[in-house]
Amino acid sequence: MTPIPPGVPEVPVRPVAERRGSRRTQVGTPAVGGGAAVSVRSVTTTRTADVGATLQRIAEPTASGCQIVRVACPTQDDADALSPRAPRPVRGHRQ
């Protein structure tokens, strides 16, 4: 029987794939990607059709210095409720 040395066995080093570069884009004022500085971000967890709760949830992190708040609009009712109140044009993402 081969003796096993005590201690933690060495973990083989895994080769790291080279990362591809990203493009810089503006999200309002802050830039994202492409070597831009890290920006503080948050995401709402409220029902977006509940406009009062969603706007409150947006106001809380922005008052603390958050630069980007993402709001999900999974249904057309959510998008319709929020779009007239959006401070900038709402850009949608469909899957």
Description:
Strand 3 (41-43), helix 1 and strand 4 (68-70) form a beta-alpha-beta unit. The chain has a domain at 28-78. It is an alpha+beta fold and 95 residues long. The protein is 21% helix and 11% strand. The mean pLDDT is 80.
Features of the shown structure:
21% helix, Dihydropteroate_synth-like_sf, alpha+beta, two-stranded antiparallel ribbon, two-stranded parallel sheet, elongated, 11% strand, 95 residues
Rg, rounded, reads: 22 Å
Strand content: 5-15%
The overall pLDDT, averaged over residues, is 80
Shape: elongated
Q: Count of helices?
A: 2
DSSP strand tally: 4
Helical fraction: 10-25%
Q: Element order, helices and strands?
A: EEEHEH
Largest sheet: 2 strands, antiparallel
Separation of termini?
Answer: 58 Å
Briefly note the structural class of the backbone: alpha+beta
Detail the poorly predicted runs.
none
Strand neighbour order, sheet with most strands = 1-2
Short summary of the structure?
With 95 residues, the chain is α+β, with helices and mostly antiparallel strands. It has a domain at 28-78. Helices cover 21% and strands 11% of the residues.
List the helices and strands and how they pair.
Elements: E1 25-26, E2 31-32, E3 41-43, H1 51-63, E4 68-70, H2 76-82
Parallel strand pairs: 3-4
Antiparallel strand pairs: 1-2
